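Q: Hi! First time asking for a complex rather than a single chain. Here are the components, and I think there are three in total. Is that enough to go on?
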Amino acid sequence: MSKDVIMPQMGESVAEGTILKWLVEEGQRVEKDQPLVEISTDKVDTEVPSPVAGILTNIIHHVDETVPVGTVIAVIEDIQGVLLTPKTDISEIIKVKPEEKNETIEEKQVYEKRYSPLVRRLAREYGIDLEKIKGTGLGGRVTKEDVLEYIETTRKISVSISREVREAEVPEKAIEVEKPAEELIPLSPKRKIIAERMAESKRTAPHVTTTFEIDMTKVARYRDANKDAIMKTHGVHLTYLPFIISAAALALKEYPVINSSWSDGGIILKRYINIGIAVSVDDGLIVPVIKDAERKGIIELGRESQDLAKRAKEKRLKVDEVQGGTFTITNYGITGSLIGTPIILLPQVAILGIGAITKRTVVIDDAIAIRHMAYFSLSFDHRVIDGAQADQFLLKIKTILEGWEAKVEKMSVTQTGFGGVW
Amino acid sequence: MDIEKEDLLRLYYFLKLTRGLEDRITAMYRQGRILGGVWTSNGMEAISVGYACALEKNDIIAPYFRDMGAFLVKGITPRRIMAQYLGKKTGVTGGKEGNVHVGDINLGVLGYPSHLADNYPVAVGVALSFKIRGEQRVVAACTGDGGTSRGDFHEALNMASVWKVPVVFFCNNNQYAYSTPVKLQMAIKNVAERALAYAIPSEIVDGNDVVAVYQAARNAYERARLGEGPSFIECKTMRMHGHSEHDAAKYVPRELIDEWKKKDPVINMESHLISNNIAKEEKLKEIGEQVVKEIEDAVEFAEQSPLPEGKEAIEGVYATPV
Amino acid sequence: MEITYLDAIKQALDEEMTRDRNVFLMGEDIGYYGGAFRATEGLYEKYGQWRVIDTPLSESGFTGAAIGAALMGMRPVVEMQFADFISCAFDQIVSVAAKNFYRWGGKTPIVIRAPFGGNIHGAAYHSQCPEGWFFNVPGLKIVAPSNPYDAKGLLKASIRDDDPVIYFEHKYLYRRIKDTIPEGDYIVPIGKSKVIKEGEDISIITYSAMVHIAIEAAHILEDEGISLEIIDLRTLLPVDKKGIYESVKKTSKVIILYEAPRTGGVGAEVAALISEEVFEYLDAPVVRISAPDTPVPYSPPLEEFYIPKVDDIVKAARRLAAY
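A: Yes, that's all I need. Here is the structure of the assembled complex.
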């Protein structure tokens, strides 16, 4: 009786493993639980113990091969099922293996070729050969995401691929078509606009960037304490951003010069506080604006910022939603950056960059503590704002965020929880 | 109480009409022109005609399947009934229901399920609405001897009595529930005793005497309208045909049938009218002929009428479509 | 002003009874006592004994009576003390109420309020979710709100609806869920589901108390990068196919979560609909999470095992996300 050795799943999201080293040779005897093979996965490197005692009759996958979880990588013949007579040759037993081998190949195919209805439909609609796609789902399954990614990447380079294929078909006439060392991507209108704006801003406004380190631990605690209730009651998933917007809005109230515009006639102070949130979309950047941010509580800010970001990505923003900003926040921390020097969006005079919030060791009262820390960088227009003012503004934000009390947020009267007008 | 001649003739007319219509239906059934089942009130017409004729126009009936007489009295025409039996669109329920399972809210006839005595609590609710709204209307509910064994019968009598609502309960005790004689249906002698357990005034009448039923009903309705609450009237009769027209009812002793044949309600009323000089034979004959004509007209109408279309089956499930 | 789920129901009853004289209540202990759960507290004093009627112990009887009153144009709201007792009235509901309009045009605008659901140590007869029993009966409408806003709006809609509506209110939610809802009149339409939370990765289709554990699970999963979209059905019969399909088309992976026993419930029907009508949008098999096919047990570890938990959802969602 034979037993399959399969590539185990080491971790819930692991889908494949690589064979590092066979610890037993083909034809060798192995005891139950004896280390059989070393494998490597995303999560861990480990030894796989033998599931039964017997002879390792068939190694199917070898060193450096990466196979999906569940693949049969070897076969052990359970000795108890085989009467070993003096005349019996191990090689004879091995010869009986061919069907086994077919089965395992079939198994592998069935597992890999498990295409869901959606995947098949997408393949049909986009004319894709699914066998070309590497599956990242369970057991090597080709998922919806795999197909969509494949479509996105292949559509862009479809021209060159078909050229290569044509050449492969006619090998005798093959001319080495060199891939050009440089490639020209024409400027999209969006790219042109962004380029102009960035250049103009840097040209016109003398940029200085000042950076503060901010302890977000209290905010993190508050968030943890309240996010469930807020989700339940208001359907809002609370991130750090609403807290930062709220703090910035309050600080702008106190330091209105940061909320102004330069003009040759004078500095225009604005009584309204409209904070733009930079959202990266596939072909650049878009900045939807939250109007009257200082009047809104964090739940409303959370809801609004999420809604705007979502619609920004879906290209469903209304015109007035990207106009009228007086200050901008850009969160490059989500892509990992710690410190940045963001460019001001004219005609504003400042922009706040948020770096990644990471747990770091800091010194508090001469003791080492672990806190959620982030670097906030304020770029400001030195025609309008001086260093001291900028630092005071940032200090105010720091004070607000570092002093966030765990209290329950009060909803404004116009909003309801479930139902109502979304 | 004195009953007007008109009312007596009216009673007679409806007896004749009920008998004639159901006989015709039975004949057509035996000719294979009617599909499904046929349940008639042959021999029991006096009960439904009696209790229905005693009602006012705005009163409601919560009948069961042996109340053809009551349907006709309340104004459901023979045409519509015949069309109903043939499953036609012009039938009372447009083909949705068959044979005697009719209902017409505009005429005050409540539709009812095949589950006996389900109509009793419904009738109590109807009466409750009259009481809440201060209307001097009554509702008459009817079921068979078998129906009085069901839980809903008892729950209804209990509620009607506790709430003191204007409902009059009738029981058509025709001595058999399908093949089950009353002996196997209940340990008591008279169904009317049941009502006493619920503190409801109760009486027993000759179910083959339409005048007796009419009078008892009138009195009961009067009491109800005055706010004195429910009443119960047991009508003793005999089921002359099988449970349905395909039931030979061999379990009923022949003697019993023969005995009750002598008490035929239609013939009884005829005799009563003639012997008391209330109406002349010619007049009654005239009524008889009128009835025949009406029935023939109804059959013709029904046969000419169209059947409903298949897809109408999925219409009319919800009153408020979603 | 914040109000509990229970008080939202009472507010709906109160407002409807004021608005329309034909609305009246029937049930056991609802009048003088104010209802076993206090759902009708104060209404007896306000509207009197003939609009808040303390019935005898006759579920079948008073449901039939409600049908009769409804046929006469009134709008009765019947209370089953516990949904478990609705089986006594099964015949009146499915043979009479559900079929009156279809069979003979008899409009039957009754509402039957039934406190259902477990997690209250009520055991077999105080904890069931019996919506499945009526799910297969054409002519009925079945609703199940998950929050105070929907509770009030759906009850009003049910009362104004001309068909028999069974209104399942979850007893566990009565005092545990509070919200600020508008005073005065508003309707939540019957037949419309609601997106409680938008998400990208997995749709979870659910109703009543289970909505709240879905939300808890959504938080946990969000931190793991799995984005749940939560659809609150609100109306079970007729179910909002459009709302369900829209979500499935978006995420391609579905979990159906319901507190009733697994076999033949609402979840089974929704799963069948999805595989029938949006098959080509599925990237994984449809998953159902429900109570097991047993009566509701009593002892705490048994009941805990019985009722679907946050952990069940989290585990299922993780497996589904990895598929």
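A: Chains A and B do not touch (no CB pair under 8 Å). Let me know if you'd like any chain examined more closely.
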